[in-house]
Amino acid sequence: MPTTDWLLATGERGNTATRLEHRRADGAAWSEGNDARPLVHGATYFAELLARIRAMRAGDLLLFTDWRGDPDERLGGPGTEIAAVLSAAAGSGVIVKGLLWRSHLDGFRFSEEENRSLSADIEAAGGECLLDLRVRPGGSHHQKMVVLRHPGRPELDVAYVGGIDLCHNRNDDADHHGDRQSLPLAPRYGPHPPWHDVQVALRGPVVGDVEAVFRERWEDPAPLSRSPLMRLRELLDREDTRADELPPQEPDPPRCGTHAVQVLRTYPNRLLRGYPFAPDGERSIARGYLKALRRARTLIYLEDQYLWSPRVVDSFARALRAHPRLRLVAVIPSVPEQDGLLTGPMNLIGRITALDELRRAGGDRVAVYGLENHAGTPVYVHAKVCVIDDVWAAVGSDNVNLRSWTHDSELSCAVLDLADDPRRPRDPGGLGDGARPFARELRLELMREHLDAGGGDGPHPAEDALCDPSTAFDRFGEAAAVLDAWHAGGRRGPRPPGRLRRYAAPRLPTFRRLLATPVHHAWVDPDGRPLGMRLRGRF
Question: At a CB cut-off of 8 Å and minimum separation 6, what does 20 contact?
């Protein structure tokens, strides 16, 4: 299977200014010989991250970017608050550098004060954490990464990329009782919203690629904010807004696995002065999805926080129309995170139109589900995962909506396992591409959890049966139907296994649709591309 059939070849990224296009002597646009390992749930990720940071020594390098960072969020028990852990690392001689989105004002329910507090704590301990507002108006820095480098011990180098922020709500596990340190969502989620999320741990040469992404942002000479009010505040608070020089980048870690990994990104076309590493923006996440979707023949498995925007799901709809055996399973939040007069409908309007388009294209080959825990509380799906034909898999910070594909900074990793899967025949759909272990195991791990299938015991199919895309599609539908019927019947008798509920978008009164639609398109799902690209409908 030629790797270029699934991953973006050199030049297809659409951004020749990035060092990602020029890092390798052979000109490859991705790295091979990596080990990618999914970390499902914040508790799994936080426990590993805590152990890895505490094992670092003086002279090691810790880099991170985040959308929100809560200094008091615990990675484990008491004493493991993220500010304390990062400050202890900096105090012991680890070089700690961070980039946090500066955020809008807290009056808009974002994270300005939390990010400022975490930054100050790290600076006081000898690290450096900058508040970065180099975005388009209304945009955000949404990338979530941690890079740990160990000069002289490259076998320990690791990078983490995905959807999990270092903040409240994220420290949940497979039982989905929620993080004890919680921020409020819609009332139906309760005081401790259950939270489903995914990160990926990366070892091998790709660690150097993720580090290069950080360095490009860190070395951007533009001011951290162009807002006169923000710059005045920086002067009054005597904030240090100049990024200190980083130590030279170490050689990439040695090869250690069978995974080809391509780092994909979104950067907007920043007004007035573009990013030096992406002068016209970058849409490689969108381009990566479009290329992979053209090869989809059997099953698209998607977990996403939003699944908004007809213009984005059009690429999924085209694949469904072109291939009558192709199925799509999507797992999304069953309840919007907020449910005010406008915010609830605003969260729903883009999803309703997007799902309508998918169902017109695929009919009953499209199945959309929400999740609940065993107490019946909805689980907030924050994961950003896509698996296509058990061959191509992507895990990142990006959602399936226009913001993530055009407007905010995002970071994702597409993984192609170069080892064959011995448990599935080759050539599904005539492309010569058999299932690959990483993509297949990621899908199976997520599906088994949602079915309460465990290792294959009980009334649900063994994992070998779930390997078959049509069987997996049907089992999800059957499990959801049984659980829905149990709820409809008054929840009498033992609760059926599984956490899946058929997604049914509520009907919105006409006046609320009329109010929400323009706000949704103008703010929630803006198109940050230049006008010519908008008119041509290109990514």
Answer: 13, 29, 209, 212, 213, 263
Distance of CA 267 to the CA centre of its chain: 15
Asked whether 413 and 204 are in contact (CB, 8 A), the reply is no
* Among candidate residues 492, 20, 450, 395, the one with its CA nearest the CA of residue 216: 20
User: Who contacts 363 (Cβ-Cβ below 8 Å, separation ≥6)?
Assistant: none
Cα atoms in the Cβ-side hemisphere of radius 13 Å centred on 128 = 13
Instruction: List pLDDT tens digits, range 266-316.
Output: 999 987 778 999 999 999 999 999 999 999 999 999 999 999 888 899 999
* The amino acid at 13: R
CB 100 within 8 A of CB 146: no
**Phi, psi dihedral angles at 185 (to 5 degrees):** -115, -165
**Which of these ranges, 29-38, 177-186, 419-428, 470-479, has the smallest mean pLDDT?**
419-428
Amino acid type, 106: D
For residues 224 and 130, the answer to whether their CB atoms sit within 8 Å is yes
> Are 520 and 349 within 8 A, CB to CB?
yes
DSSP alpha helices (H): ranges in 11-104? 42-54, 82-91
The closest of 392, 363, 395 to 382, measured between CA atoms, is 395
Q: Which two tokens stand for residue 498?
A: 């599984």
Residue in 523, 515, 260, 224 with CA at minimum distance from that of residue 403: 523
* Among 93, 61, 98, CA closest to 83: 98
Helix (H) or strand (E) holding 35: strand 31-40
**Residue 80 corresponds to which amino acid?**
T
Three-class SS state of 410: strand
Indicate the SS3 state at residue 133. Answer: coil
The number of beta carbons lying within 10 Å of the beta carbon of residue 484 is 15
Task: Give the count of alpha carbons within 13 A of 359, CB side only.
Answer: 11
* Lookup: tokens for 418: 């170069």
Residue with tokens 């729903």: 348
Query: In 3D, which of 263, 159, 145, 249 has the Cα closest to residue 204?
Result: 159
Q: How far apart (Å, rounded) are the C-alpha atoms in residues 508 and 329?
A: 24
Between residues 271 and 255, the one the model is more confident about: 255
Q: Is the dihedral of CA 119, 131, 154, 445 positive or negative?
A: positive
- How many whole angstroms separate alpha carbon 72 and alpha carbon 70? 6
* pLDDT reported for residue 515: 46
Closest CA to 211 of 260, 279, 276, 154: 154
Distance (Å, whole) CA 62 – CA 93: 11
The larger pLDDT score, comparing residue 511 to residue 481, is at 481
DSSP-assigned letter for residue 520: I
SS3 65: strand
Amino acid at 182: S
Burial of 419 (0-12, 13-18, 19+ CB in 10 A): exposed
Whole-model pTM over 0.85 = yes
